[in-house]
Write a structure and sequence with these properties.
The protein is mainly beta and 105 residues long. The protein is 14% helix and 50% strand. The protein is built from 1 helix and 8 strands. Strands 2-1-4-7 form a 4-stranded antiparallel β-sheet, with no helix packed on it. A 4-stranded antiparallel β-sheet has the order 3-8-5-6, with no helix packed on it. Keywords: Signal.
Length: 105
C-alpha cells in the first residue's frame, strides 16, 4: 500500500508541473538583488517590490500571469516576457493560472 501511495503522490506532482512555465523576479533592476521564483499556479506574495523579471511560458500552454501591486493590476502576459527595468510602481504579488482560471489581484 505504501508503494501505491508514493506512486499516486509522484503522479500528482508531475501533473501539477506539466505546464512548463516559470517566473523569476528580482528586487533590483537588471535581474539583481533579492530573488523570488515559482513554477506553481496560484497567488504569490513576493515579499518585496520587483524591479525586473523573467516569465517563461511554453507557447500555447494556456497559462498566464498577472502582475499586481497590492490589489492593483500593473500588467499581464501569456507569452514569455522579460523586463530588466520594470516601470514604477513595480509589483509585489503575482497571480498565475491556466485555462479558464480567473486571475484577480
Amino acid at each position: 500500500m505504501k508503494a501505491f501511495t508514493t506512486l499516486v503522490v509522484l503522479a500528482a506532482a508531475v501533473v501539477g508541473h506539466c505546464h512548463g512555465w516559470s517566473l523569476n523576479a528580482w528586487a533590483s533592476t537588471n535581474y539583481a538583488g533579492r530573488q523570488f521564483s515559482t513554477s506553481t499556479s496560484g497567488t504569490h506574495l513576493l515579499g518585496f517590490t520587483a524591479k525586473s523579471y523573467k516569465w517563461s511560458s511554453i507557447r500555447g500552454d494556456g497559462c498566464c500571469i498577472k502582475f499586481c501591486n497590492g490589489s492593483n493590476e500593473v500588467g499581464n502576459w501569456c507569452q514569455s516576457k522579460s523586463n530588466s527595468n520594470v516601470a514604477s510602481p513595480g509589483f509585489n504579488k503575482v497571480v498565475v493560472g491556466c485555462g479558464s482560471t480567473v486571475l484577480n489581484c
